[in-house]
Design brief:
- The structure is a single chain.
- The chain is of the alpha+beta class.
- The protein has helices at residues 21-33, 74-85, 113-126, and strands at residues 11-13, 44-52, 57-61, 91-100, 131-135, 141-145.
- It has one domain (11-153): Cytidine Deaminase, domain 2, CATH 3.40.140.
- Helix content is 24%, strand content 23%.
- Strand 2 (44-52) and strand 3 form a beta hairpin.
């Protein structure tokens, strides 16, 4: 038996003003996307903004349904829309943030497992790592380069090949 340690790299900023202008602008677009989220059941509204290599920014937000599995996370809404409108353009970065009713989210919002796998597929599709910019309603901002830093043991398509 051998033990393998996996480490990840996260850049953490105390405030959005410390971000470079591109990341700050993308995060602002994600914050704006929160306003049209449909979250009547959880009251936890998430906004995402995807920056494509061609400079286009696509936003998305969570869309709930009373049958919970039928809803969709903000990250996947934005990534799937970007892929449908710009099928040959790689994703450069995605920003994610959220706001809740009844409490303030003070820690960075991270993608769920399904969203992480979709991000991994997106990176693999274009052979291009994406940057993740994550924040709560207020507080610190975390920036991660590449999905392997949030999904270190991801499933790869090569494992399907015989």
């Amino acid at each position: 038996m051998k033990k393998i340690d996996i480490t990840i790299s996260v850049q953490e900023y105390d405030k959005t003003e410390e971000l470079n202008p591109e990341d700050r602008s993308l995060l602002e677009r994600a914050k704006n996307a929160i306003g049209s989220a449909y979250a009547p059941y959880s009251a936890y509204r998430v906004g995402a903004a995807v920056l494509l290599e061609n400079g286009e920014i696509i936003t998305g937000n969570n869309q709930e349904n009373v049958a919970y599995p039928s809803g969709l996370c903000a990250e996947r809404v934005a990534l799937f829309y970007a892929a449908s409108q710009f099928p040959d353009v790689p994703v450069k970065a995605i920003a994610i943030t959220a706001k809740a009713n009844g409490f303030v989210i003070e820690t960075p919002v991270t993608p769920c497992g399904s969203c992480r796998q979709v991000m991994a597929e997106t990176e693999n599709r274009f052979k291009n790592k994406m940057k993740l910019v994550m924040m709560g309603e207020k507080g610190k901002v975390q920036v991660i380069d590449g999905v392997e830093n949030i999904l270190p043991l991801m499933f790869h398509a090569e494992k399907l090949k015989k």
